[in-house]
Amino acid sequence: MKTSRKMIASAAAILMLFQCGCKHEQVVHSQNEQIEITLSWWGNDTRTEYTLEAVQLFQEAHPNIKVKCSYSEWSGYEARSRIRMVSETESDVMQINVGWLDEYSPDGTGYYDLSNVTDIIDLSNFPEDVLKYGTRNGVLNAVPIAMNTQTVYINKTIFDKYGLDIPKTWDDYFEAAKVLSKDGIYPIAGVSKSVMLMSIAYTEQLTGKTFLDEEGNIAFGEDELKIMIEFYVKMANEKVIPKIEDFTKTGIENGTYAGTVAWVSDAMNYYSKLLKRDNEIVVADYPAFEDSASGEGWYEKPATLYAMSKNTEHPREAALLMDFLLNDRENALLQGVEKGIPISKSARKYLDDAGQLNGLQYEASELMDSNDNIKEMSPLLENTNLINAYNDACNLVLYGKADADEAAAELYAICVSKFSVK
What pLDDT score does 32 carry? Predict the structure, then answer.
């Protein structure tokens, strides 16, 4: 077969481009070649709208690349992603949860090795101690978009109405409940994961032990698990929090909950309506005992990350899209702080220059960044089976089916059988 001059010229152009070492290279193909890559993410309608707009801008800048998008709310996305990862039909570029790295790529081979495209993705925007979250077995599989931790949001308008100060200690929440519960208001509320993590923080501060040891094994024994269980039961019985199964977003919006423990990234999802109604929402410090440092027992993790498929047929085009989503000015201004305060130095500067680094979510992120006591979160702390087991143990005591010793023994047995225990 003869090789056409056009093909030779095109190949030469590509070779010259790759040799230039430019960070934001344009991948060149023949004029008739159209490359299609796929992108997937989860989120609400707001996230979908700005991401689709950003993709359109990317395609205009790279007319030879077409991006096919797939998206949904979290539960549907998680279920589909599990099927796609198992069947190796995942998107070329995908938003992932940090826990998926341990599940699908414990040895670093489950996602694309991003070290192969560092001439395209500008990783100088990201500190090494942040990139480690996306690294498995020495292989960079994913880049964190923003960081996240459980944060306490307080409706100061409600607290002011009852003459209450913003809580700082665990006791402050119980004292507030004595006042607020008379009108059916809870000082704080949260979903099951948030409540378990809050109980872990309480127990770590009280005992001086950490839930996990340095090897990632569960270090809590029956005594510490009993404290966690009794703490939840006490909070529920004394109306500090509603029962986990009763939590609703509506309770935040109608003032039934005067506070919420939730992720940094949940700030506007939970409080945008109240802020529009002139409620003053503030970020409270991480609860602690009088003699404990704020932030002890609390954990942080990437809010979300971007990864590339190990099976992608177009790694350089996928890398161009990933760099755009992480570092580009147009995408940064569209995304704002909806995914959290961006880690990328470039993206953060674009937002700062545009006056977009402000508001509730930014305040929560700043509090997290300024606290040196918050530790790196293990994916085990978000394990659904562990969370459900803790909830079940709490309910055994709450509904009189077992005492705290029995429930703790049962929970510990589950931990031994299903998880690593020291």
Answer: 59
